Model the fold of this input.
Amino acid sequence: MVNQYNSTIETLEKLRLESIAGGGEKKNDVQHRHGKLTARERLGLLLDDGSFEEFDILKTSRGGALGDERNYPGDGVITGHGTIDGREVFVFSQDFTVIGGSLGEAHAQKICKVMDLAVKVGAPIIGLSDSGGARIQEGVDALAAYGEIFHRNVRASGVIPQISCIMGPCAGGAVYSPAITDFVFMVQESSYMFVTGPSVVKTVTHQDITSEDLGGAQVHSKKSGVAHFTTPNDILSMREIQRLISYLPSSNRHRAPMLDLRDPADRIDPTLDYLIPANPKQTYDMNVLIFSILDGAEFMEVQPGFARNIICGFGRLGGQTVGLVANQPAVLAGVLDIDASVKAGRFVRFCDTFNIPLITLVDVPGFMPGPDQEYGGIIRHGAKLLYAFTEATVPRISVIVRKAYGGAYLVMNSKHIHCDVNYAWPTAEIAVMGPKGAAEVIHRKEIQSADDPEAMLNKKMLDYRRTFVNPFLAAQRGYIDDVIFPRDTRHRLIRTLQILEGKNTKGPERKHGNIPL
Done:
């Protein structure tokens, strides 16, 4: 009996060691030569020391698949749970050293198990992708397995934060799981995503293109907007995921953790009084304001390389996580275009889903004009941002810093779409349109018949600016709750967040709205 027991223990030890070894030392060395860590090394960096508890370490495929009758321990993916800064998270890490990290039935079952548990427990799910795609040898079973993961991605959306980190190839149907998740990280020069690869592109379009140029990190962070964050290597990816987690709640049932950075709530910044140039045509960097008001000048920008005319990201005010949306006058004058509307709209919806208050810093001259924008659907895409802000029930505060013209003013979290508290700086310009356009429309005949049309235009522009292009008329109407000194912005925001903490808004009963996708 003792010998039988010892034999069983030895068998368990052997099977566990075999699974932990993955594809073996030679394949691990290849992974390192390509500048990539192994699946287990990544988890070791991501999670708190000693916190990882693995599931299904002994799970294998049913075997007998076409052309491959071997069973692989772990089936090419490591799954389980651990902690980041003491907070529980669920993880899966695909192992490229085991059959290229390809996804088959057992592989997907392991991922689905931790996804289901994450939803039940109310903890984030983090997926580290490094896979050759569907396991062709398993045929339709591999496709069915992907479908099960997609289904869970959708069901978990808005319930728990879902984070994907692409750390190698991700092609074909595999790209749709990360695309559904909340945030996508990519590693420069070692990760890529595309629906159809370079060989298919060449066959269909006769165009030669590399994997990097077709779907590398730079492409998706600057052109497509698929990637929210990019890092130079695997190590920094793990650190940035940890940083992101620190801003987020564990689920939609929780609040984001408070973190006291010992930055006084009543701190003022007199330099903000001089941030806005006297000449309305001159620009400035909105980041100066952002870093000035946030706790410890810490800000984690989302999609920093995409639609740079709008800034989205996470920071803290009085220790509380906030989602910040700000026009960037240093890029395209801060105008709203298709990409900016989609970027901000999705970010606003994420914050609303996970109980993160929204702060909006407004300096917007309008929507981007031109046939390219109209043909591309600026009406439909601009409506996404309008819909997102209007639908949001979390505390919403806006500060109009300078320009707030026309429909773009309304869309950027205005009082008229029921923003909770709206502040304006004395430099705010709230009007239907800019002085020049307004004067040309209102006084067209008078300007045309004048002896000096240019002088008349300048006079009418000045009259319009004095009457309308300021925050005081809007304040008189109650559309602005207060005109504040720029130096006091941080204090006013923190105090307002405190009074809005108990906000409770219940909309009409419905299955869900129909956002203009």
The CA atoms of residues 115 and 125 lie 7 Å apart.
